[in-house]
Give the backbone structure.
Amino acid sequence: MAEKSIAAGGALEKFFKLSAKGTNVKTELIAGLTTFVAVGYIIFVNPNILADAGIPKSAAIAATIWSAVFATTLMGVWANYPVAVAPGMGLNAFFTYTAVLTFGLTWQAALGAVFISGIVFLLLTIGGIRQAIIKSVPMNLKSAIGVGIGTFIAFIGLQGSGIVVGNPATLVGAGHVASVSFELGGKAPLLSCIGIIFTGVLMCRGVKGAILLGILFTTILGMIVGAGPVPHGVGDIVSLDVPSLFGPEGTFMQLDLKAALSFGVFSIIFTFTIVELFDNMGTLIGLTKKAKLMKDDGSIENLDRALTTDAIGTMASAVVGTSTVTSYVESAAGVAEGGRTGLTALTVAVLFVIALLFAPLVGLVQAYATAPALIIVGALMMSEVTSISFDDITDAIPVFLTIVMMPLTYSIANGFAFGFVSYTLLKLCSGRSREVSWVMMLVSAAFILNFILRLH
């Protein structure tokens, strides 16, 4: 038995080049477990968001897990990166609340748009065109996109918790935050507030997996006060009858490419593609630098493989039935534990498979328990605002519009549009056309055309 263990360790050492990366099997396994705990909240949050788009929750759970398993395995085995890949926060919100609930696509057509965006991203990566697109967007707007998505995610969480409610006089207002009256399965703002503070304290103390622990704590607290369903046996927590992608309510191969194309979803496909580009690029650059995978000249080993993995993962996510996957910045938790190779990612993928057995637990987690995760993720994304310069008014106005229009119009695409168009027009009208690339002009013109087409 010991000889087999040694042989397996030698095979892993050779395949993942552990010694060359300054790590070992034990360190990589611990790093993988740490990363999984940090990203595990997506198993609870993503199905709830996709369910709002009409996707059956059981299938959404299966799609979330299997897309993460496929993409994370590919990232680990092919790119040899210690990075977890799963359906992205912000992208899932855009899928549900903009593409489906605002633009009126069916969830099948929205999946078609996700698949097309994956093809576009793959072509951009293979052809090297992604560099031209990335360079065309000013750094201030790149940062503003992340901040805007963060505010949008937080706004969704605030609504889902009942902390923010509709108001006929002012459109929005504060809910009954201090109320101790809970309805089973309903909104519970006080519980969400407690969850925010609990999770925040854990993060302040450096507890690994604070967001996931916060979800579990708030769920249990909700059960105690009668705000959430209570499990009556082991079968309500663990089950061998795992969620399936198939059957009458399955999502496998349910994407509708024809509907996506006939809808004229340029802005949707563009937004999926461009957000994925910036989000994934920024995450990979940050993580590879922290993992000491970036060379002195700034080049990154296997970066093209990592980007290609993300593109293929995006197409695969549409096939199984979930929104776009992306590299997770929470992988930094595993990197901090010493994860340096794809063995860390492979460990995460295996743990995602095991999580299928605990699918019934997802049904016990209510919106008030996942709301703190959305709000806190939004807060973390807000940190990008520190890299934005507001000294130039031709930058400040587009940045501001990009950020505020996402939550206020309940649309990431609208935030993009107002930011891009205002930037282009302000620069052109102030005699600074040299600062606007032809790519930016083309994209802005497309957004203006999209606004005009909405009138008809």
Q: What stands out?
A: The chain has a mean pLDDT of 82. The CA atoms of residues 43 and 57 lie 11 Å apart. Residues 266-290 form the longest helix (25 residues).
